[in-house]
Amino acid sequence: MISPYSLGATMYVPATNKDLFSIISGSKFEGVKSIVICTEDSIKAQDVPNAISNISDALKKQKLNGHSKNAPLVFIRPRNIAVAELLASSVDLVDVAGFVIPKFSIGNEPIWTSFLKSMPNMMCMPTLEDSDVFDLDKMKLLSERISKNLKSQVLMIRVGGNDLFNCLGLRRSKGITIYDTPLGVVLKNLSLLFLSQGVKLSSPVMEHIDDVATLEKELDLDLAHGFVSKTAIHPLQVDFINNAFLVEQSSLDEANAIIDSDKAVFKLNNSMAEPSTHINWAKETKDRALHFGVLEVKSDNKLVSIK
User: Tens digit of pLDDT for each residue in 117-139?
Assistant: First the structure.
């Protein structure tokens, strides 16, 4: 079973990329834990046949060469249900972890659910990226449907930030986190609705590649809102994203103490620890540490990875 924390910084790659094999084999981008091969927005409609052929060739080559220990998890983003069905019928998907479903909504949920049920070993990541996301009632209904119909196959929900900005006719400027925009409210609502149904979420891209300070600030807020990974649009963002999800040793110690304690409530690092209410946080923290690694505070107060 794949853990949502195992995705780390997920990179999107156009399905027509000439280096697709080196990317999915792990030799192209160091540190990338998961990739999404995209046949939707990143390519033109007329290029879909070539894209599918390119995907098939890369997967065949990977199978012949064997899996590297550095190979990322591979997901495919079909352009629509017709392309998904074509991929399922014409490409050997045994080494593909799942599909990223574009523009997932109340309207198309039944047809995607039917398709995915025919492939029970295939995970999926529905993407929320149209104006329905602004309707709380629709999102509540969608979270309930996912929990009822697809929970065993949904690895997490992805959020299409730029598509949602486009719905509003906006684009954020450098120096502003997504939480400082109208989408901040949307992300908070999605966190409440989907996390309460036991469904994890991945946060939107930070499109300004050189604005590292804002990326790091946004990652802190992603963690505070319960997001478990973030989409990267450039290799330079990968290490920043993965490092943000490292767990401090003190937090891991607290998590272990909460899990192992037989007390109803106790003092821990000058904070109240109550296993009955903190147990889920503790389990999530251990899972995060298992997949991302642990940080230790050195004497100079710098954080150093001890993965």
Answer: 999 999 999 999 999 999 999 99
